[in-house]
Amino acid sequence: MTRKPTEVVKDAVEAATAKVTDALTPDVPGSPGSAPAPLEEPTTPHDPLPAKAEQGAPETRTPTGAETGAPAEAMGQQGAFLTTSQGARLTDTDHSLKAGPRGPILMQDHHFREKITHFDHERIPERVVHARGAGAHGVFTGYGTAEGVTRAGFLAKGKETPVFVRFSTVLGSRGSADTVRDTRGFATKFYTDEGTFDLVANNIPVFFIQDAIKFPDIIHAGKPHPDREIPQAQSAHDTFWDFVSLHTEAQHHTIWNMSDRGIPRSYRTMEGFGVHTFRLVNAAGETSLVKFHWKPKLGVHSLDWEEAQIAAGVDPDYHRRDLYDAIESGAFPEWELGIQVFPDTPEETFAGIDLLDPTKIVPEELAAVQPIGKLVLNRTPRNFFAETEQVAFHLGHLPPGIDVTNDPLLQGRLFSYVDTQLTRLGGPNYPQIPINRPHAPVNDMLRDGFHQHAVHAGVAPYRPNSLDGGNPFPAGAEENAFVDVPVRVAEAPKVRANPVSFDDHYSQVRLFWLSMSPVEKEHIIRAYTFELGKCYEQAIKERQLRCLANVDPVLCEQVAVGLGLPVPEPTVPPADVTASPALSQIGREWPADGRIIGIVVDDGDLDGVDAVRRAVFGAGMVPLLIAAHGGMVGHMSVQRTFATARSIEFDALLLAAAPAPAPDALPARDAKAGAADTVTVDPRVALLVEEAWRHAKAIGAWGAGVTVLGQSGVAGTPGVVTAESGTEALAAVQRLLAAHRVWERFPATVA
């Protein structure tokens, strides 16, 4: 008896719901589908399977912002049978229509022509910058604490606003790796009921340039060399350092990039900055100048440089996977949105800092970041292309109560962001793509063009009109219209110039350097030495050393030693500045939510492993069992094998056993196996421990696992703990995780 399609879907849903590693603990994230795949090809027709539990989709709004009431599934594929794009059912999609089995394909094969034509046009131009990205849906909740400075409704106390966030790297192509040293984008689309607000932020609070007219220059310098199209997604090459050493306003952004900020641990542990100064307007019409900040709940953490390099090869999707696995496992990423508030004075400065200069920050010690709301990402995209790839941001998408300033970089971006979408997304109607549709009513009088989805009524798309009854009508202040702040524009001659206050290119670079902890300074020295060491031209290395001499003598000397070059004298005296402790990532403690704990196990020694797994889940973290083989150990599923695991996947390691070399620990089969015949522990387990130790990660062991620490030579070093039981070892490791890394394992040589 043939089952009904609804019964098949119901069974799939139940299977997806019941899909757990075992009966006692939750499943680990990473399942590709919403139901387990059967061994044989399914043949009973049924409707599409439901989305995975953590997946979301754009609301089913009309192109003009109206709610439809339709479920999100209404935008997906429908029915049980294969059809053409027009809904005609098809019997075969494996064979072209031919003149006999051995004959030529016939031109009349409409199905082949539709299928191959669509395939030939599947790709759209990738973004020139920020091409490599990952996105997620979420909700923003206002605290109400911003009501004194802005009338923006989405910031009201308890107000919930749906959002879509896209994280990205800047320089690399879509196919590049996540963990390259680069600036990260942090763009948030707030679907407010007063119009869409796009906060297009970066994980670095300053930019390379002060004026948008230089944007093609910095990007052309950072992109691969045009003759060979290498190196990909890197700044460690001649053209980048040629530009920044000549165009010294870039030095501030560059030192941030050379710091650990350039290689974030994850998007979840990444700060965000609006870069520019914006103008807020409150209900009384009073204005303030502000800078926007995103503060992650888990703190700001980074990868070790070697760890980032390994990840780029072993798992180029490292950050994307981390984001989606965290959401699937219920460890929803959270940030607080905060603002630094400054008086809106004619000079537009604060504490001597020009607020319109995008290469400058205002230290938090001078202007505290005031929390105004919380962002939680809780749904992954259902379709990466439809949502993450087609989402389009624009700094001019502003709700009432938020306005721009005369920052020359911001002013140029107001033009550029619209302009780039016209080619990438096929015309001016890109706001009608579902992920870009506003959640406020739209009556814009914009008509026609490529991909017009709205079916406009009326005959008079102009103002004034009488044929459509005068509709649409202008809104006044009482209707909460967006009103440009009537800022006085100074009467001045037309010039191509910057104000004198933009000329200081080194004092804040020195401020950043002096604010770093000793271990962070070591990493900055290493980064400059590596990047400049990859350059070919000696003159470029020497020129950048002259820039570093203007920042700090120790920094310059240490990099010069690594390059084998003389230490130049500064051309300007190093500035007298006060350090800003808020700029350092080290020295505080943070929650361990969503951290990944690798647990090395052996078939014959599972004492305490199940209790540890339960405790890891209970602490809001994710345990991954690492064994010699896949399948099961005892009643527990194995997530990684010695062949597939690398230490970069784990925030900490726990050793429950000392596994002997497995049958596949053969150098001919796995290069990580090394000299497996000369050791008593599988050499890939020893490599896991050695790498985790080099990357300053916490390591714990109990039982037979303690012997691995001795054989690896790490026993008794900082951050390596032993205990009588697995739960005790986990507790010690969890305390170490609060500081993210065990940096005291490697004492710094610079103060």
- In CATH's first tier, which class of the domain at 133-235 and 260-436 applies? Mainly Beta
Fourth-tier CATH superfamily name of the domain at 133-235 and 260-436: Catalase core domain
> What is the CATH topology of the domain at 133-235 and 260-436?
Catalase HpII,  Chain A, domain 1
Oligomeric state, counting identical vs distinct chains: single chain
Low-confidence stretches: 1-24
- Assigned CATH architecture of the domain at 133-235 and 260-436: Beta Barrel
Main sheet, how many strands, which sense, barrel?
Answer: 11 strands, mixed
Q: What is the distance, rounded to the nearest whole angstrom, between the alpha carbons of the first and last residues?
A: 78 Å
> How helical, in percent, are the residues?
10-25%
Average predicted local confidence, pLDDT: 93
How would you explain this protein's 3D organization?
Among the domains are: 133-235 and 260-436, Catalase core domain (Catalase HpII,  Chain A, domain 1), CATH 2.40.180; 596-745, Class I glutamine amidotransferase (GATase) domain (Rossmann fold, 3-Layer(aba) Sandwich). It contains 17 helices and 21 strands. The protein has helices at residues 5-18, 110-120, 215-222, 238-246, 251-258, 305-314, 318-328, 384-389, 408-424, 507-515, 518-533, 538-549, 553-563, 609-618, 683-694, 706-712, 726-737; strands at 55-56, 133-142, 160-169, 184-192, 195-202, 272-273, 278-281, 287-296, 334-343, 349-350, 353-354, 370-381, 402-403, 596-600, 622-627, 632-633, 636-637, 640-641, 652-655, 698-702, 720-723. The protein is globular. Mean pLDDT is 93; it is low at 1-24.
